[in-house]
Amino acid sequence: MSGHVVPGGRGAVGQGIGPIEDPAVRARLAWSAITEPGDGVAGMLVARLGTEAALEVVRAALEADARADRVAVLDRRVEMLDDPRATGDDDLRGGFEAGLRRWGPRVRAIDVDRDLRAAAQVGARLLVPGTPGWPVGLDDLGPHAPLLLWVRAGPEVDLAAVFGPGIALVGSRANTVYGAEVTAELASASADAGLCVVSGGAYGVDAVAHRVALAARTPTVAALAGGIDQLYPAGNTELLRRVASGGAIVAESPPGTRPSRWRFLQRNRMIAALAGAVVVVEAGARSGALNTAHHAAQLGRPVAAVPGPITASSSAGCHRLVAEGRASLLVRCSDVVALVRPDDAADVQPRLAAVHDDPTMLRVLDALGLRQGVPVDEVARRAGLAVTETLDTLALAELVGRAEHTSSGWRTATS
């Protein structure tokens, strides 16, 4: 295998990815280009035949005219294996024709070297299953596991540590102040316990979780719904770059792939698999965070939900998870550690991360009045930040005693 597939913990992002000649890796890159995330038929085919043979079968089958001839191409290749009758072959045969219809339009457009060049431009690394540094939790997804991972991480980042035991914190993109405060406490408790903080890089709960982890100098991982060069949402570009320098950004789709609703839902399965447990902080009745909780439950990962006022629509999804027995009720922020380390649960007390040198925090604090409260919109304008990011940061500042909310707006804390 080429040395350009990152062989584990440390590696300089500036080196990027050069040409890769290994046929198995190039075939895996091709599979990544022709499939959508979580394609179970592709996963079964690759697991059964190997990446190269599976790709050859697809290309040969696409040349056949009749359905029977296309399935026969698969059958002949399976018969050449040492174990020509394996569990799951019927499912593979049944899904093969539909798979060809999905993959066919993309096969002729495969350009592995173009994808490698695009990844190199943003300093990305490439990880494939079985190589050191690969997050083994992803293997629990079985045939729906990513075929590879594009990773952006700092030159001194130890990927083995980043992809170690972690907690996924997920929830609303339009969180309340309460949601931001609880997320900050949970991220802090996780950081104090040495747990990686996993989320999706979105606005709201995701952003608070990443920001607190960075302030605590603990690893944090953001899973993207598009290509590794598509930092989304645009308003979180700078935050995601900071995540990449202090933790890792991961993507399974080729560079240039735009985020879409389907890819967000499939991204959620990665978040669940990368973490040892999932906590839903604030979620409405139709929140995407519920989808992450569903994936976690399918994987056997513990799921917990943070309660809110029973009248709050922002917590309706959390309450439903608990009421239906699909999540445990998180009673204390310190209980988050018990989800992955039951024996360490008793006396862990969250200690909110030091945020005095967080650049976003400093900009917000500089924008506050000393005596007169300043409205959130004005704080955002002065700080040059989005209103959502400003609100999250103000909630964190209030939690650590740096800011306080008055009838006229936000001001520097007086005590």
What does this molecule look like?
By secondary structure, the protein is of the alpha/beta class. The relative contact order is 0.11. The strands form two sheets. It has a nine-stranded mixed beta sheet, sandwiched between helices. The protein has a two-stranded antiparallel ribbon with strand order 10-11. The chain has three domains: 23-110, no CATH class; 136-345, Rossmann fold (3-Layer(aba) Sandwich); 351-412, Winged helix-like DNA-binding domain superfamily/Winged helix DNA-binding domain (Arc Repressor Mutant, subunit A, Orthogonal Bundle). The chain has 16 helices and eleven strands. The model is unreliable at 1-15 (pLDDT under 50). The chain starts with 22 loop residues before the first helix and ends with a strand. The longest helix has 19 residues, at 89-107. It has helices spanning 23-34, 40-49, 51-63, 67-79, 89-107, 112-121, 159-162, 177-192, 205-215, 237-246, 261-274, 289-299, 316-323, 359-366, 376-383, 387-399, and strands at residues 125-127, 149-152, 166-170, 196-199, 220-223, 248-251, 277-280, 303-305, 328-329, 403-406, 409-412. β7 (277-280), α12 (289-299) and β8 (303-305) form a beta-alpha-beta unit. It is 43% helix and 10% strand. α9 packs across α16, α14 crosses α15 (376-383) and α15 (376-383) crosses α16 (387-399).
